[in-house]
Each structure stands twice: as C-alpha cells, then as structure tokens.
Amino acid sequence: MQEEHLDDVLRIQRACYEPEYREDRQSYVDRMRIYPQGNVVLLVPDPTVTSVSPSTPPSPTSPAASKKRKKDAKWIVAGYILAQPFYRGAINDVNDVKLFSKWIDERNHLPKTEQDCIYVHEISVDPALRGRGLARPLTDYVEQLGRAENFKWLTLVALGSALGFWQRTGYALVNEIDYGGHACYYMEKKSGLP
Length: 194
Prior knowledge:
alpha+beta; Aminopeptidase; globular
C-alpha cells in the first residue's frame, strides 16, 4: 500500500465499515511508515477498460508491479488488508498506533514468543467486487507474512457478520467481546510454524 492508494482504500472502508470502526487517513500513513509490509492493496483489472484480460487476480505481494499497474490506469484497488506485529490477546483500537509502535520498539528485535502475533487490524474488499474470491489472496498474504517473520499466531477481532468468514479461513473463536458497544469476536489461528 502506498499513499497514492489511500483515496481508494478510504472509499472501500466507508462502504464496508460503520463510522466508529473507520481509520482516518493519518492512521494509514502511520501504519505504512511503521510496518509497510503489513499494509497491502490488491489490484485487479479495471472492468471498464477492455484492453486488460481479467485473468487471475494479481498477488498483493509485488509492490513494484503495483506501481506499474497504477500508472497504467488499467488496474483498480479491489481490496486491502492491514496487519501488524502485536501482543497476542490484545486488541488494537481504531486509529491507535501507539501500542503497535510500542511493540515494534520493544519486541521487534527479539525472538518471537507465544505472546507475539500478527494481528489482522482490518480487511476490506470493494462491495462491487465481492464474491470473486478476492479476500483470499489478502488472507493468504498475512499467513505467509506471519510465517516469514517467525510468528506462531495470527489474531484478529471479527466484527459481527464477519465471524463466519474468519471461521472458514481457519480462525478459531477465543471469546466474544464488547467492542464499541457491539458484539465482536477475538479469534486466533496458528500460522503453521511449529
């Protein structure tokens, strides 16, 4: 994810999240600065342009290709994911990068333990593009990131209706929580590391 993607990211976020769950622009900028590899967009062929074949969606892991795609104006942001190192069992509030930054300062240079995780802070797919399997490359990316950086756990807070989606991707419900006056679900998944 780069600053040039933020208008599209914020547009998708407004379509997918209630106001109390929306990050502001500065939060995205700060997250990209602190941990760029955890902030990823998924680009797909623009359906209004006929010169690009809409084959398999591109991987969100190729930033150089993302720059080229954006310049072509034949690609659009279909979705995004924010993931970060964090404290297992903790919840990172909307627009709060202080605890996340604290983890980076205190723990990033140390071996990962059972108490460290990759925390999926936010994921969204443009509602106009749903039903095409576009969330899968984003969730797969986070799993690969977790393993590559030696995290044994992936965690998140699922908002209401997303519980089933996360269960289908292998996350287990740990407990129900009240988050912003809404029932939400703290969930965990092993990254695949021993």
